[in-house]
Design a protein that fits this description.
Blueprint: E1 12-15, H1 21-32, E2 36-41, H2 44-56, E3 60-65, H3 71-85, E4 90-93, H4 108-136, E5 140-145, H5 148-152, H6 158-178, E6 183-190, H7 195-198, H8 204-211, H9 218-221, H10 229-240, E7 251-255, E8 258-262, H11 279-285
Parallel strand pairs: 1-2, 1-4, 2-3, 4-5, 5-6, 6-7
Antiparallel strand pairs: 7-8
Length: 305
């Protein structure tokens, strides 16, 4: 999908965490499609560089330097969009951090920092954005950023996985709440060679090669569905466009050469017993009934041979 075929001229967008990496790719793609973009980052220099880059490419952008999570930060972002562009049409909640540690070693602070940024940050920004979109009365687009970690789970990422799974659930819930206002809510499940992904030991050599300008091999682009941030960005432009006006409540994956649709959690199999279940009855029924094939619960990186 060529994002330039999607005309967002006259629209205004906020992309949180857009000073670098995936967020910057999102912001640049929206700007190329014609949208004015509020660049958000905690790093003022990174935000300024992002604005300068977008303007050099002929786009419109303005920076708002604030850490997402609080209602005050969300209100500042929306106010900045309205002040600079006169309205708000698109929100992408991309900002995120990692504090990986196994359950028994994770501190309260490490858990709270990750959920504050990802989960609460998505909530407060979406709430402020939807309030503005509803007041405008012309619909809008909310695109949250989830993760495979929130769909399958990753070792050492209990805080991150919880937040990303919550984001997917919020997308499905908010889609039902916002439908009457013609505001779509979807979640992107990206796989891109960002600083976060590059920290995975098995992928470090490929990340270093990518930094040298070498293309990622097909074994990654197709085998893992792993590419660059620029490979992910067109999905945001598509979801922000009129062509996606009827798409809502979905978790959509993209990375490298791969585009996918994630299923909503559903019952795999059921069993009934007159009068209900006691522990012994469950134990007797389990092996050949509901529990005859258990669901996978992790997603370790397996590099293609």
């Amino acid at each position: 999908m060529n994002e330039n075929s999607m005309d967002l001229t006259g629209q205004s967008a906020i992309v949180t965490g857009s000073g670098r990496g995936l967020g910057l790719a999102f912001a640049r793609a929206l700007a190329r499609a014609g949208a004015g973009v509020v660049i958000n980052d905690v790093d003022a220099e990174a935000a300024a560089r992002a604005v300068a880059l977008i303007e050099a490419e002929g786009g419109q952008a303005v920076a708002e330097v604030v850490a997402v999570g609080t209602a005050e930060a969300a209100d500042r972002l929306v106010a900045r969009a309205v002040e600079r562009f006169g309205r708000l049409d698109i929100l992408c909640t991309n900002a995120g951090i990692l504090r990986d540690r196994v359950l028994w070693n994770m501190s309260d602070e490490e858990f709270d920092l990750v959920t504050q940024t990802h989960l609460r940050g998505s909530f407060t920004c979406a709430r402020a954005a939807v309030r503005q979109m509803r007041a405008q009365g012309q619909g809008g687009r909310v695109v949250l950023v989830s993760s495979i970690s929130g769909q399958r789970g990753k070792f050492g990422q209990g805080n991150y996985a919880a937040a990303k799974a919550g984001i997917a659930a919020m997308a499905r819930t908010w889609a039902t709440e916002c439908a009457r206002a013609h505001i779509t809510v979807n979640a992107i499940v990206p796989v891109a060679m960002t600083q976060m992904v590059a920290s995975i030991p098995a992928l470090m050599p490929y990340a270093q090669a990518a930094e040298r300008g070498e293309p990622l091999p097909a074994s990654l682009r197709q085998g893992l569905g792993l590419g660059t941030p620029a490979d992910v960005a067109p999905l945001l432009v598509f979801l922000a466009s009129q062509q996606a006006a009827q798409i809502t409540g979905q978790c959509i994956g993209i990375g490298g050469d791969k585009l996918s649709l994630w299923s909503q959690p559903a019952e795999v199999r059921v069993a009934y017993r007159d009068g209900g279940w006691d522990a012994q009855a469950i134990a007797q029924s389990w092996p050949g009934g509901v529990g005859r094939q258990l669901e996978p619960f992790g997603d370790e990186i397996q590099l293609p041979v």
